[in-house]
Known about the structure:
Helices cover about 75% and strands about 0% of the residues. It is built from 13 helices and no strands. The chain has helices at about 1-30, 40-45, 50-70, 75-80, 85-95, 105-120, 135-155, 165-185, 190-195, 200-220, 225-245, 255-275, 280-285. Helix 5 packs antiparallel against helix 11, helix 6 runs antiparallel to helix 12 and helix 8 runs parallel beside helix 11 (about 225-245). It is globular and about 45 Å long.
Amino acid sequence: MTFEIGILLALACAIATQLGFLYKHKGANVAPAVDIRHPLRTVKDLFSSKWFAIGMAVATGAWFFHVAALAFAPLSVVQAVLSTGVVILAVMAERIFGFEVGARQWVGVAMTALGLLLLVMTLPAQSGAHSAYSLAGMLSFEGGMLAIGALLISGPRIGAPDHHHGIMLGAAAGVLFGVSDVAIKALTGLDGPLAILVSPWLAVAVLASIVAFYASARGLQDGEAVPVIAATSTAANVSCILGGIIVFGDPMPRDTVGIAVQAFAFVLVVVAALVTPPPMRAAEAHAQPV
């Protein structure tokens, strides 16, 4: 039953994660702009908003669900279940939080959901929660993802349009959350608390999470809720599924059709990000006093 428990925990994590993001978006937009040059003041400003604090509390609960799920099921399976969060996000944003989800945004969400669904369908059946990994694979994957995250964060400085910065920061946060999740998965295979405390992957997980926190908060201030949160969730899901395959050796499709469908799924996710309209200033569109 451990595999099934892992799936249920991942589903609970998917719901709580999107709910936490929506609360954080509401709170971040009544707080002063995130300024990485003053990290402690920024944290104080963000947590002074009760909605952001509630969102962080919900997100912390989701994190515990996620870690528990990783202990019961393979990384790529956990992330495949978490991919349902993209659809959950759009429904909750419109029905519960009253956000306007435009037609093009629904198209983007639908394409993302279809891409992730195809990705899930082509993942071979697995059992067990193996956490053995290749050191070379881990170093190259984590290093590559950190470089991609840094590139997305510095988007406007390298010529990317300013109005896309919210989505780019959301995607950067997702990639960095993926870096942290892959490191946490490696930690679940260690023997005892002492081995975890002295592991370099604990430092990687903590550092990536801290940078992702600031990137996510600023992205929620600079962009609309649905595109930014969807970018974060999708980037985290895709990077973790890739991490499961590259680092932990989770199986890939053995036939040409399966590989072609997976490639098409990744293309769909990328195109969905491109067709989603540029965000308005979320603080102007949705901010309400706390």
